[in-house]
Amino acid sequence: MTAAPLLRLEDVSKRFVKHLDFAEKIANRLGAHIREQVVHAVDHVSFDVGQGEVVGLVGESGCGKSTLGRVVAGIHPQSDGHVYYRDRDVAAVRAGEGAEAKRYALGVQMIFQDPFASLNPRLRVRDIVGEAPRVHGLVDEGSSLDDYVDDVMRRVGLDPAFKRRYPHQFSGGQRQRIGIARALAVKPEFLVCDEAVAALDVSIQAQVLNLFMDLRADLDLTYLFISHDLSVVEHLSDRVVIMYLGRVVEIAPTPDLFAAPNHPYTQALLEQVPRIDGRKKAFTPIKGEIPSPLDPPPGCHFHPRCPHAMDRCRVERPASKPVGAGRLSACHLNDTA
Ligand SMILES: Nc1ncnc2c1ncn2[C@@H]1O[C@H](COP(=O)(O)OP(=O)(O)OP(=O)(O)O)[C@@H](O)[C@H]1O
Predict the structure, then answer these.
(1) Residue 224's closest CA among 74, 62, 119?
(2) Residue having the nearest C-alpha atom to atom 16 of ligand 1
(3) Which of 136, 157, 196, 287 has the maximal Cβ count within 10 Å?
(4) What is the 45 CA–ligand 1 centroid distance (Å)?
(5) DSSP H helices in 185-304
(6) What domain of life does the native source organism fall in (predicted)?
């Protein structure tokens, strides 16, 4: 990576405590010894994202992608570790509550999978898009909020003539464009897109992915693009970060990752990607169930599903080590090669 990091994650962890439900509390009164459990949703994650870069964050459901995205966007505080933005520790910046905190809060925006759930159904598009710029005084003196909203709508391919409509009056793809417009309206520099096209039909997905790329070029945006689907990030990302059960297992420039995946988990994920070169591979689901993050396997979390697992993998967590230019992988096999 050549660009200076805009975002840097250093040993970031996020734990959630799963509190006892009513039945479990009753059972405890009757003598059971059920204890609160801790989910290690994100487990010592480190990587950076350069200014103007698109980093794809990929892994199966429950591996902690959304949680990490929310930590980056400042929605969840991390339990441990540091998040640096423009080389400033975000925890300190946010505690300050001054102009720098506001710059971070507006500068890093999140776009969600389900625009319908994230858009207030009682607000017209004009207010959904215009509310934050109005509150934060982002509209230049001498121009109107309506003009501001019209500009943002045009930028995402929405006709401003429809700004008095409500979200339910739009299609799924258009609603996602409203979500993108709402994020862009505060002039962000970093977008965290969490499964932002997963709910859309394939043809609409392609249009929205193109929009993201156009916006990147026009506005010099940086992206953390979260998806369970490697094929979604293939044409979009400069680099890909692969997560498994809360941990990063591999980081690589996108072409290198697709040409020669290093980690057995990445190899298994790639086996599932339908290729567009006509030589469509047979669909081979990854062997075994994803273990529970409440009780992850010791050693390498992937070892119960790994075809190459060795004794060491069952007891020792593999460190992330360089495996080529700009590449890291956390697999004991690399020590035996
Ligand atoms: N607020 C929360 N409270 C308790 N546990 C949580 C919370 N948010 C996430 N988790 C747990 O953390 C783990 C990681 O969840 P997360 O949603 O980050 O994964 P994901 O990879 O984004 O999966 P998906 O694509 O299914 O959302 C899961 O076991 C999930 O149940």
Answers:
(1) 74
(2) 64
(3) 196
(4) 15
(5) 202-219, 230-234, 254-259, 264-271
(6) Bacteria
Domains for the chain: give ranges and CATH numbers: 5-259 (3.40.50.300)
| Residue 201 DSSP label | -
Of 1, 71, 85, the C-alpha closest to 42 is 71
Residue 178's identity, in one-letter code, is I
Which amino acid is it at 267? Q
CA-68 nearest atom, ligand 1: 18
Residue 280 has pLDDT above 50, yes or no: no
- Mutational pocket test of ligand 1: of 14, 18, 65, the residue with most ligand atoms within 8 Å of the beta carbon: 65
pLDDT digits (tens, 9 = 90+) for 209-251: 999 999 999 999 999 999 998 988 998 999 999 999 999 999 9
Confidence (pTM): 0.91
CA-nearest of 334, 329, 301 to 315 is 301
Kindly list the distances between the CA atom of residue 175 and the CA atoms of 12, 168, 179, 184, 287, in Å, as whole numbers in the listed order. Answer: 33, 8, 6, 14, 37
| Residue 73 one-letter amino acid | A
Q: Are 77 and 113 in contact (CB under 8 A)?
A: no
* Residue from 12, 67, 230, 244 whose mutation best tests the ligand 1 pocket (most atoms within 8 A of CB): 67
Scored b (16 or more CB within 10 A) or e, 228-251 reads bbbebbbebbbbbbbbbbbbbbbb
Helix axes 172-184, 145-155, angle to 10 degrees: 130
